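Worked problem 6 (solution included).
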Amino acid sequence: MLNRESLYQSYLAILREEMIPALGCTEPIAIAYGAARAREILGADPDRIVIGVCPSIFKNAKSVIVPNTQHLKGVAASVAAGVAAGDASKELEVLSEITEPQLESIRHLLDTCPIEVTIPEDSLNFDIRITLYKGDHTAYVRIALFHTNIVCETKDNRILKNVSLAEEVADVSNTNDTENADSKENPADEAGHDQLVISTDRSLLTMRNIVDFADHADIEQVRSLLDRQISFNMAIAEEGLKTAPGAAIGATLLKYDGDSIKNKAKAYAAAGSDARMDGCEMPVIINSGSGNQGITCSVPVIVYARHLGVNDEKLYRALLISNLTCIHIKTPIGRLSAYCGAVSAGAAAGAGIAYLHGGGYEEVVHTVVNALANVSGIICDGAKSSCAAKIASAVDAGIFGYQMYLNGKEFFGGDGIVAGGVEPTLKNIGRLGCDGMKGTNEEIVRMMLEC
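Solution. The predicted structure is:
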């Protein structure tokens, strides 16, 4: 059993892994990242491209706009952008600096280079496989398990990198991006492969320990992380309200539902997604691999903190609650699912808001359970403009979950998927999102392929 200091350091590591910047929806950006790396390996512009993606990657890349591409959409556009204009060294900001000549190169590549998109039957839950061809030469890159995790690279069938995808880590619902962690070098297995190293143990997360961590964290150790989240995520929310892009969910909420603090919290979060789904060229700080989840678990908390006039320290501690709660809820579900990630993040935002109002462990966990009991049926049918509306619903549920607690009411174990206590309930949510919705995810993808 870890002592308190070891647990504390693990929680800091989890935050540093998760709270990283990304420009654009992270699934098409992961495709662009892999494509940019494959272009580096090939050393030439390809004359043919084949990309295989798992169903969830296809779903999340099909309808969302790829940033800095003048509103191109889809898997092929993501690949073309990465090949023609991507900088792989920037990882999830791979498309942050596209020039006008590079835009022309993206269009030319889409017009002249055949790009075959497939959905391999043997793909993992998170899987991207990109092969570039130039005459007799090839370059292959595979990203698996999470967004920046390149597990295989080859050039002309010569292996440059090969990470063993052992059975026990094929479903990495308790892992995260190792690219940004203070982890050990990957040791070689008996076959000479690199072994995948899990950088942090997400099973260490519990709601009781999350609240304790937030209460006692040294703010100086998290200030830069949280300041960047506040700056980036509020900036894109304000941009979404100013320009009303996409479906303009945020602007619509303010126009018709007034300026109550609850509505403002919903509207600002939705507006950030409005902008992001419309290809806004501003980065966000993500959570659980998702920009929408990063916006949802942070922006409502910031809006409430400013309304309440709390000091910076109180806001920082509330953001620790919301960020870690979001990660904890999402961990057993996995990176990609038919379970809408905004639900997890909205419940987490409610937890942070409860903390801002002076709540402790009891207020926080009842808020989370009440929220999840309400909106856990929201599906993820890919990244696109309606994500902003789902975010508004999830934030509303998070705040209402706290209001229920204030009114002395709660959902009890045995009420549907609610179990006896917060941790058993979160375990049920994980089962629902990871196992229960597999068939739903497959059916959603079939519907999208028919459109």
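Discussion: Residues 24-195 form a domain with the 60s Ribosomal Protein L30; Chain: A; fold (CATH 3.30.1330.90).
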